[in-house]
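Hey,
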Amino acid sequence: MSLEILSTIAAVGTFVVIAATAIAAIIQLRHLRSSNQISAIGSVQEVIESAEFEAARRFIQNDLPRLMKEPHFAELAEKRVLDSELAPLQLIGNVYESLGIFCKYGIIDKAVACDLFSGPILSGWTAIAPFLAIRRRSLDAPALWENFEFLAVLCEDFEMRHPDGAYPKWARRMNIDEPNPVGPSQS
């Protein structure tokens, strides 16, 4: 065999090894990204399902509309640092702001976040938006909680695309209106 043929075979072999290594690295990076995404979603879900967050959600749904009608509320909303009475707003806004950033930069897939959390995100946005409008004007901070807003837009778009839910069109549904005829017999 000539030296040129051996050199060509060696070059092809080297290329195959490098290509296989690159493919393995890409696969490993995808697994690592998925693992990081699962971890991030788990962390967010842990906060959203916490008792403190649930209390904050009840506050913005039940107490905030009443507070916003009170004369002193505008003063509270215009302060740079929120007092303890409005701490639940800060918790909700900051958590959804962080989730919006995760979605914006691809740390968490937008569709996954919307499928999991669109209901609470949209109800949170609707409840907080009037307060946020006051804050943005009074502090001259149009970017305040802009990633929360971005997340709410993503969720609204997701809900418009999936008005009847996001159940896969290709998957069959279970018949929940009638007892399961295939299930175990009850004798």
